[in-house]
Amino acid sequence: MEREKQVKAGKKMRLEEFGLLFPDQSGKGISKSTISDILAMSDEILKHPPVDGAHKKKKRAADYPIFEALLAEWIERAHAVRVPINDAIIQGQAHLLLDELSG
Protein backbone atom coordinates (compact mmCIF):
# COMPACT_ATOMS: atom_id res chain seq x y z
CA MET A 1 0.00 0.00 0.00
CA GLU A 2 2.88 2.32 0.77
CA ARG A 3 4.32 1.71 -2.70
CA GLU A 4 1.04 2.77 -4.32
CA LYS A 5 1.23 6.07 -2.43
CA GLN A 6 4.78 6.60 -3.68
CA VAL A 7 3.70 5.89 -7.25
CA LYS A 8 0.82 8.34 -7.00
CA ALA A 9 3.27 10.92 -5.68
CA GLY A 10 5.35 10.51 -8.85
CA LYS A 11 8.18 8.42 -7.41
CA LYS A 12 9.99 6.15 -9.87
CA MET A 13 9.72 2.40 -9.53
CA ARG A 14 11.73 -0.55 -10.75
CA LEU A 15 10.35 -2.72 -13.56
CA GLU A 16 9.96 -5.66 -11.17
CA GLU A 17 7.79 -3.54 -8.89
CA PHE A 18 5.70 -2.34 -11.81
CA GLY A 19 5.15 -5.91 -12.97
CA LEU A 20 3.82 -6.88 -9.55
CA LEU A 21 1.00 -4.35 -9.95
CA PHE A 22 -0.54 -6.74 -12.53
CA PRO A 23 -0.56 -10.20 -10.94
CA ASP A 24 -1.66 -13.25 -12.89
CA GLN A 25 -3.50 -16.27 -11.45
CA SER A 26 -0.35 -17.57 -9.77
CA GLY A 27 0.20 -14.20 -8.08
CA LYS A 28 3.29 -13.38 -10.11
CA GLY A 29 3.38 -10.16 -12.02
CA ILE A 30 4.48 -9.29 -15.54
CA SER A 31 8.12 -10.22 -16.08
CA LYS A 32 10.80 -7.57 -16.38
CA SER A 33 11.68 -8.74 -19.90
CA THR A 34 8.08 -8.44 -21.06
CA ILE A 35 7.82 -4.90 -19.71
CA SER A 36 11.13 -4.01 -21.38
CA ASP A 37 9.89 -5.38 -24.71
CA ILE A 38 6.66 -3.40 -24.44
CA LEU A 39 8.52 -0.20 -23.58
CA ALA A 40 10.94 -0.73 -26.48
CA MET A 41 8.00 -1.08 -28.88
CA SER A 42 5.88 1.64 -27.29
CA ASP A 43 6.20 4.10 -30.17
CA GLU A 44 5.04 1.47 -32.66
CA ILE A 45 2.24 0.31 -30.36
CA LEU A 46 0.98 3.87 -29.95
CA LYS A 47 1.05 4.46 -33.71
CA HIS A 48 -1.14 1.40 -34.30
CA PRO A 49 -3.42 0.92 -31.29
CA PRO A 50 -5.60 -2.21 -31.18
CA VAL A 51 -9.18 -1.81 -32.31
CA ASP A 52 -11.91 -3.30 -30.08
CA GLY A 53 -9.54 -5.43 -28.05
CA ALA A 54 -5.99 -6.59 -28.46
CA HIS A 55 -6.70 -10.16 -29.43
CA LYS A 56 -9.75 -9.76 -31.60
CA LYS A 57 -9.68 -11.97 -34.64
CA LYS A 58 -10.20 -10.56 -38.08
CA LYS A 59 -13.75 -10.89 -39.28
CA ARG A 60 -14.11 -12.71 -42.53
CA ALA A 61 -16.97 -14.05 -44.56
CA ALA A 62 -17.52 -17.74 -43.94
CA ASP A 63 -16.64 -19.97 -46.88
CA TYR A 64 -19.27 -22.50 -45.78
CA PRO A 65 -21.63 -20.54 -43.53
CA ILE A 66 -24.13 -23.34 -42.84
CA PHE A 67 -21.40 -25.86 -42.03
CA GLU A 68 -19.49 -23.41 -39.83
CA ALA A 69 -22.66 -22.38 -37.98
CA LEU A 70 -23.62 -26.01 -37.30
CA LEU A 71 -20.12 -26.91 -36.10
CA ALA A 72 -19.95 -23.81 -33.87
CA GLU A 73 -23.36 -24.71 -32.42
CA TRP A 74 -22.17 -28.27 -31.68
CA ILE A 75 -19.02 -26.96 -29.97
CA GLU A 76 -21.05 -24.50 -27.86
CA ARG A 77 -23.44 -27.27 -26.77
CA ALA A 78 -20.53 -29.54 -25.87
CA HIS A 79 -19.00 -26.79 -23.74
CA ALA A 80 -22.38 -26.03 -22.14
CA VAL A 81 -22.72 -29.59 -20.83
CA ARG A 82 -18.99 -29.73 -20.01
CA VAL A 83 -18.12 -32.47 -22.49
CA PRO A 84 -14.34 -32.49 -22.93
CA ILE A 85 -13.46 -31.98 -26.59
CA ASN A 86 -10.20 -31.64 -28.48
CA ASP A 87 -9.12 -31.06 -32.07
CA ALA A 88 -9.56 -34.71 -33.08
CA ILE A 89 -13.11 -34.81 -31.72
CA ILE A 90 -14.00 -31.55 -33.48
CA GLN A 91 -12.55 -32.87 -36.74
CA GLY A 92 -14.59 -36.06 -36.37
CA GLN A 93 -17.76 -34.06 -35.82
CA ALA A 94 -16.88 -31.89 -38.82
CA HIS A 95 -16.62 -34.99 -41.02
CA LEU A 96 -19.99 -36.23 -39.76
CA LEU A 97 -21.58 -32.85 -40.52
CA LEU A 98 -20.07 -32.81 -44.00
CA ASP A 99 -21.44 -36.28 -44.69
CA GLU A 100 -24.90 -35.21 -43.51
CA LEU A 101 -24.85 -31.97 -45.51
CA SER A 102 -23.60 -33.54 -48.72
CA GLY A 103 -25.74 -36.67 -48.53
Can you walk me through this structure?
- With about 100 residues, this protein is mainly alpha-helical.
- Helix content is about 60%, strand content about 0%.
- The chain has helices spanning about 1-10, 15-20, 30-40, 40-45, 65-80, 85-100.
- Helix 5 packs across helix 6.
- It is elongated.
- The termini are far apart.
- The model has no long low-confidence stretch (mean pLDDT about 80).
Could you name the key traits of this structure?
single chain; 103 residues; mainly alpha; 6 helices; 58% helix; 0% strand
List the helices and strands and how they pair.
Layout lengths: L1 H7 L6 H6 L11 H9 L1 H6 L17 H16 L6 H16 L1
Quickly describe the structure.
By secondary structure, the chain is mostly helical. Helices cover 58% and strands 0% of the residues. The longest helix has 16 residues, at 65-80.
